[in-house]
Design goal:
Number of helices: 21
Order of helices and strands: HHHHHHHHHHHHHHHHHHHHH
Radius of gyration: 22 Å
Shape: elongated
CATH class of one domain: Mainly Alpha
CATH topology of one domain: Serine Threonine Protein Phosphatase 5, Tetratricopeptide repeat
Structural class: mainly alpha
Distance between the termini: 62 Å
Mean pLDDT: 86
Length: 413
């Protein structure tokens, strides 16, 4: 039962069903008493929790304006800047069609030729915020070497920046250095405060990522003392998801991705369905549920899930800025796997025609649509699409394959 004190704290949040849900999940006196021992008090404020609701519903502008207000009120708190950094990074990755985890479920993205045109102003602000947080935390640690919140905030910034340069720039060496620094900061947090569950996320990601590297790279990295263990990494993520304050949702997302990477689809789907049920207006959580249904081999179930997602997207205000190209592309891939070639051709075209489709995904969709039209013996249409996919300027990652099929029709082999 909620106490009068708790009710007074959440009163400003009672403006929507989503906020009521958040209040029910987080606002108990027991949680406040326990969490205050293992997190920065800022992370427990109603303002921060409210901003996270906007973030998890992909309302990045709504989240950003709220986090910026929090930062203005707490200019010396590095976590206030970290929340802005998080929102800027994920907003940009979303706009670049880089948050569909189908891209990362396998290792092919490591060798992708894709160019990601991040606006310079956005890149500059991400760099400035990262450097500012690290500098602020360095000073706090010098003042108090036992400041667990400062170590966590520094590791958080480094981890966020590592994710950004990995996905946007394919800067794997730089990201590995930042990831290791984030893990070291997290280890220091847990040395100071073993109950600081949020620190387990960086450690879990590093454990799983290192263990997933090819054997020769694991040996080379192991010489430096950095080792990995997949099950240990997954267990750390589960602990953070269950006990963390700052990033339990992110831990569940990473857990789902890693399980998917290893082909453990039922487990991944169970995690993802929980996220989709908690945040039904998060377009990406719903999309990932469909992707996992596809990957576990349930083609008809996946098609139905993709179509439900498209139906919900047609409802005014149901999703904030849904990037439907990702749904159409996943639907087309599933139809292709079910030998529904004509349907797949049309849905690849629908993906390419979406007004906010990135150049990279558009050309992937055009190439795949061309392949489908070749299978349908509609060579003229296939050639038209291959020419689009290989046109000069913009993304060239599909050009070689498209030029190959301009010379010789695609046959499915």
């Amino acid at each position: 039962m909620l106490t009068k004190t708790c009710v007074s704290r959440i009163a400003p949040l009672l403006r929507s069903t989503a906020l009521l849900l958040l209040a029910a999940l987080f606002c108990t006196e027991a949680l406040y008493a326990q969490a205050n021992l293992h997190t920065d008090p800022l992370n427990l404020t109603p303002e921060v929790r409210e901003a996270h609701v906007y973030f998890y519903n992909l309302d990045y502008e709504g989240a950003l304006s709220r986090f910026e207000a929090i930062q203005r009120a707490n200019p010396q708190n590095p976590m206030a800047s970290n929340y802005i950094l998080m929102t800027l990074i994920f907003r940009e990755l979303y706009h670049q069609d880089l948050l569909d985890t189908t891209y990362y479920a396998h290792d092919s993205f490591l060798s992708s030729k894709r160019d990601v045109p991040v606006p310079q102003a956005t890149r500059d602000r991400i760099e400035q915020l990262t450097n500012s947080v690290v500098s602020m935390c360095d000073n706090l640690v010098k003042q108090n070497p036992s400041n667990a919140n400062a170590y966590f905030a520094r590791g958080y910034a480094r981890g966020m920046h590592a994710a950004f340069i990995t996905l946007a720039d394919h800067s794997f060496v730089g990201a590995a250095r930042q990831g290791l620094s984030s893990r070291q900061d997290s280890e220091e947090v847990l040395r100071i405060d073993p109950g600081y569950a949020d620190a387990k996320m960086a450690m879990g990601i590093q454990q799983f990522a290192v263990a997933s590297l090819p054997r020769i790279l694991r040996i080379m990295i192991g010489i430096t003392g950095v080792t990995g263990n997949k099950e240990k990494g997954l267990d750390l993520l589960r602990q953070c998801a269950a006990q963390g304050i700052v990033n339990p949702v992110e831990c569940r997302t990473a857990l789902s991705l890693f399980l998917r990477h290893d082909g453990r689809y039922p487990e991944a789907l169970a995690v993802q369905r929980g996220l989709a049920e908690q945040y039904p207006h998060d377009y990406l959580f719903r999309l990932e549920e469909a992707n996992l249904t596809k990957d576990k081999g349930d083609g008809p179930g996946a098609i139905a899930t993709y179509k439900r997602l498209l139906d919900d997207a047609r409802k005014p205000g149901y999703f904030i800025d849904p990037r439907l190209q990702m749904t159409y592309f996943g639907l087309a891939d599933t139809q292709r796997g079910q030998n529904m070639i004509a349907d797949a051709a049309q849905d690849y075209l629908h993906a390419a025609e979406q007004p906010k489709c990135s150049e990279w995904l558009k050309r992937r969709a055009q190439l795949n649509a061309g392949e489908m039209f070749d299978l349908l013996h509609q060579r003229d249409k296939a050639v038209e699409l291959y020419n689009m996919a290989s046109a000069g300027g913009g993304d060239q990652s599909q050009a070689d394959a498209a030029k190959k099929y301009l010379k010789t029709p695609y046959t499915g082999t």
